[in-house]
Amino acid sequence: MRIKNQYDVIVVGCGPAGSSTAKSCAEQGLDVLVLDRNLEIGTPVRCGEGISDNSVKELRLKIPSSCIAQKIYGAVAYSPSEKSVHIKFPGTKGYIIERKMFDKWLAKQSSLAGATIIAHSNVVDIIKKGDYVAGVKAEILGEQNREISSSIVVAADGVESLVLRKSGIKSEKKPLLVDSGYQYEMENIKLKHPSLIELYFGNKIAKRGYVWVFPKSKTSANVGIGIAGASERSAKAYLDEWIAKHEMFENASIIEVNGGCIPVGGLMKNMTGNGIIGIGDAVNQVNPIHGGGIAESIKASRIAGPIIASAIKKGDVSGKFLARYDREWWDKYGNKLKNVEKVREYFEKLTDDQLEDLADILSGDILVELSHGKSLAKLIQLYARFKAKGIKRKLFGK
Ligand SMILES: Cc1cc2nc3c(=O)[nH]c(=O)nc-3n(C[C@H](O)[C@H](O)[C@H](O)COP(=O)(O)OP(=O)(O)OC[C@H]3O[C@@H](n4cnc5c(N)ncnc54)[C@H](O)[C@@H]3O)c2cc1C
């Protein structure tokens, strides 16, 4: 294997966004290099590892059983006082995967499709020719100052994307649009519902705080917290406090610790420039209600691959040409995700008392619709009617 000085496409980052885009480009006959700074693709994990069955089906992913820790059949959402709403329908199935295995599996798929992937390769800068991005500078397998040219660079380097920053594409990473996430993988938990994910909400947990318990077996789970970026204490402090209040963790062990930033909004109209295209967490392609980005990044890669191929075949890698990707992504996914963002904005303004009210009136099916960015008007109406009834009862005793 020889690392060449010129490729059609250099993909920076080999998470789900990078390896899927690389696969899609290689399938179009392009010469693709993927560089990832990690020593091992998929490690360290920074993820709750949840993915819905709907997404798996839509993406036609044939995930090997070795990458699946636990099949999930639905969810339980808890109000601040821990009133529960059960969400269990045929459409709410999902998986808790093993990201270490899953990311490697995705990488192997793109390698088999023809892309060259090199781990332990840190991209430190981009190369520019005029106002075009034309390659990268990297430390590849310990070799410093390697310069490699390409027609297009794909910024798939995650939430802190250096490539995007260097290329001058403005990313919306405002503190309120990026949560801090912290998570333990725990063993020997007394799980109430090993085949359901559990979601806990409320300002008691932390400002705009939520906790997830994603089972990985009957006795183990990813137990994590997301809090607003600009909070008083650390995500770890809030998570430890929450765990201490819950008996199910009394005898539990912590077998892995991870965390990271979770974009929960800031969907970008412009994710492209001359010779550059952004994908995945780098450009905030996540579901803004929970920050889930595995499926969203793979969905975007399926749009990006053919557009990159046609730009290279036509010899036009200008931002103007690549903006087709912006438009197609917004038409297919962006506008729907924008509606989901509105639902999140509505929920994050609610007090704990209002969240308690909602636990009384919300059914699982409305919660599912809300998570898809639908039914917000229905919810607001339902809540207004509920409050009006309460006032009537107080005033007239009926
Ligand atoms: C605590 C937490 C829990 C989460 N839970 C879920 C969940 O349950 N479900 C879900 O769908 N999503 C979840 N997410 C989000 C999910 O992990 C991301 O959306 C997803 O990984 C995005 O994929 P990506 O390929 O864009 O970025 P990443 O997976 O972050 O991959 C980026 C890659 O780029 C590499 N890289 C970065 N900089 C460089 C550089 N300069 N040179 C070379 N390589 C570089 C990194 O090593 C990394 O491998 C969670 C996130 C966090 C932090």
Walk me through this protein's architecture:
It contains ten helices and 18 strands. With 398 residues, the chain is of the alpha/beta class. It has three domains: 186 residues, FAD/NAD(P)-binding domain (3-Layer(bba) Sandwich); 114 residues, D-Amino Acid Oxidase, Chain A, domain 2 (2-Layer Sandwich); 51 residues, no CATH class. The strands form three sheets. Strands 1, 2, 8, 9, 10, 11, 17 and 18 form an eight-stranded mixed sheet that branches. A seven-stranded mixed sheet has the order 6-5-13-14-15-12-16, with helices on both faces. Helix 1 packs parallel to helix 3 and helix 6 packs antiparallel against helix 7. The termini are far apart. The protein binds flavin-adenine dinucleotide (FAD). The site of flavin-adenine dinucleotide has 39 residues, from helix 1, strand 3, strand 9, strand 12 and strand 16.
Outline:
The protein has 398 residues and is an alpha/beta fold. The chain has helices at residues 16-27, 53-58, 99-112, 162-167, 235-244, 294-314, 319-348, 352-361, 364-371, 376-396; strands at residues 6-12, 32-35, 50-52, 68-72, 74-78, 84-87, 94-97, 116-118, 121-129, 132-140, 143-155, 178-187, 196-201, 210-215, 221-227, 253-263, 272-273, 276-278.
Please give a handful of descriptors for the protein shown.
single chain; 398 residues; alpha/beta; FAD/NAD(P)-binding domain; D-Amino Acid Oxidase, Chain A, domain 2; eight-stranded mixed β-sheet; 18 strands; binds flavin-adenine dinucleotide
